[in-house]
Write a structure and sequence with these properties.
Elements (H helix, E strand, L loop, with lengths): L6 H6 L8 H15 L2 H8 L12 H23 L5 E3 L3 H11 L5 H20 L2 H8 L2 H22 L3 E3 L10 E3 L8 H18 L5 H20 L40 H6 L1 H30 L11 H17 L5 E3 L3 H6 L5 H16 L2 H5 L2 H16 L10 H17 L2 H18 L8 H14 L1 H7 L4
Antiparallel strand pairs: 1-4, 2-3
């Protein structure tokens, strides 16, 4: 069955896209390892109590996070046929958690209901063709900048997750937001694992060894497990004490079997926020969520498809409508299951870097997430430091597209620069896109070339102006 020309090969277009079954399977594993941290991280982000004192519960959030990610990723692979994996979106879940924590009128079901409504709205925009039209209206230079920006973003994620680059607290009295290691020094065995993994991965990639990224992850994981079991390093934060030389979030350990708790599914209340906050405040919150998930997915999709080589010379992505429909469904299902909006993950680039080009890789990743619901040794054995080298190397691969930008045309060059710098600097794909789109419209206007601006770009730029101005708008309306 697993041969060139087989029904499975034809369905996923494996040979047609220059791949093979072993690459797809390796890619599926690499993507899973690169993004499996969300099963541990999402429950931590959504751990707070709401206005009624209710909590979602760590075991339930972990199980449902893995379950929803598995189902949606399999759907993406089997139906849209792209190596894009989905899981709870970082940024949206943090926004949801902060909003619940700081608003005494909201409960978790209310907030997740807004996520559902945002997803329904986005699905309507996809089905009417509006979202696809916006994607096609973006100039090619900005699409390239999106790829570069995501490359820088994914590399920064790797460096920060590994502790190689760390955030400096404001109390440090410095204008530099990040620094090298801890207090300017590289300390601890976890950082050593990252450095060894990075050197090994680069060496394997340069030598064009098959499975280079996956070999790097597995080797780094084995080294991590040996160090943890012999030196008992522990996590960087155990809930009480902070250890700057500890593992970032996940300390390698074996997990025991546990039955998944899926009780959160169906608990969202789509109209609860309107009852407790009023129509205006609830609508503004839903609008912020909608814009974030709308443009994050578009940017990520462009970057990953370009890296996979599945985007054509006109900038079109095969089955783009299906990709966007599943992404919209991710917000609906994620909100309905109380784990926040699910979206395409930039960490899918790890699988693409391993050679994945089709949806078969996503099916493999999705199945691994479903397995993780029941038994999670793969997740708890793999620390961030073991995966981070793959993200840095993939980031390099994506940033190499920067030469395609026309640097002589400032109407493209300046928006492109703002796009790919603000993505990593603000830790948000949507922020980079917004700055790029707004500046593109303004500069073309200043140049007297307004006719070159697609009508939808005007609309998108206006929407982003509203997005960036949401703070003053809320203050003017007395919304906190």
């Amino acid at each position: 069955m697993l041969k060139q020309g087989s029904a499975l090969d034809r369905y996923f277009k494996i040979s047609e896209r220059g791949s093979n079954f072993s690459r797809e399977i390796r890619g599926g594993f690499a993507t899973f390892f690169a993004m499996s941290y969300i099963v541990v991280l999402n429950p931590l982000i959504l751990s707070g109590a709401d206005s009624s004192g209710g909590t979602l519960g760590f075991p339930a959030v972990a199980a449902v996070t893995a379950f929803v990610a598995g189902i949606l990723t399999i759907l993406m692979g089997a139906w849209a046929k792209h190596p894009f994996a989905l899981a709870t979106g970082l940024g949206v879940n943090a926004f949801v958690a902060v909003t619940v924590a700081t608003n005494p009128g909201l409960t978790w079901p209310d907030m997740m209901g807004l996520v559902v409504l945002s997803g329904v709205t986005m699905l309507i925009l996809v089905l009417t063709g509006f979202r696809t039209a916006v994607f096609k209206a973006v100039p090619e230079g900005l699409k390239t900048a999106i790829v570069v920006g995501i490359g820088l973003f994914i590399a920064l994620i790797g460096l920060v997750n590994a502790g190689f680059v760390r955030r400096i607290p404001d109390v440090a009295g410095t204008t530099v937001p990040v620094g090298l290691g801890f207090d300017g020094k590289l300390l601890g065995w976890p950082t050593f694992v990252f450095v060894v993994g990075l050197i090994l991965t680069i060496a394997l990639v340069v030598r064009k060894v098959k499975g280079a990224i996956l070999i790097g992850i597995i080797t780094s994981t084995i080294l991590s497990v040996i160090l943890e079991f012999t030196l008992h390093i522990g996590p960087s934060f155990d809930g009480k004490n902070y250890n700057p030389q500890g593992w970032s979030l996940v300390a390698p350990k074996f997990s025991e079997w546990a039955a998944p708790d899926l009780s959160l599914i169906g608990k969202a209340n789509p109209f609860g926020a309107f009852e407790h906050l009023g129509v205006v405040a609830a609508t503004l919150l839903a609008f912020v969520i909608l814009l974030s998930i709308f443009f994050d997915a578009m940017g990520t999709m462009v970057g990953l498809a370009t890296e996979a080589g599945t985007i054509d010379k006109d900038g079109n992505i095969p089955n783009v409508d299906r990709v966007l429909q599943i992404d919209a469904l991710g917000a609906i299902v994620g909100g309905g299951a109380s784990v926040s909006s699910n979206q395409i993950y930039v960490e899918s680039g790890a699988g693409i870097g391993e050679g994945a080009r089709t949806g078969l890789a996503s099916v493999v990743t999705g199945l691994l997430f479903l397995v993780a619901m029941f038994f999670t040794p793969l997740i708890n054995l793999v620390p961030f430091e073991a995966v981070a080298p793959a993200l840095v190397v993939v980031g390099f691969m994506m940033v190499s597209q920067v030469g395609k930008i026309d640097w002589q045309d400032w109407g493209i060059a300046i928006p492109a620069f703002l796009t790919f710098t603000l993505m990593p600097f603000t830790y948000s794909i949507a922020n980079g896109l917004g700055a790029g789109f707004i500046s593109f419209v303004l500069i073309r206007l200043f140049q007297g070339r307004a006719r070159e601006i697609h009508p939808l770009m005007w609309a998108v730029a206006a929407a982003f102006l509203l997005f960036f101005g949401i703070g003053p708008i809320e203050a003017a309306l007395g919304i906190h």
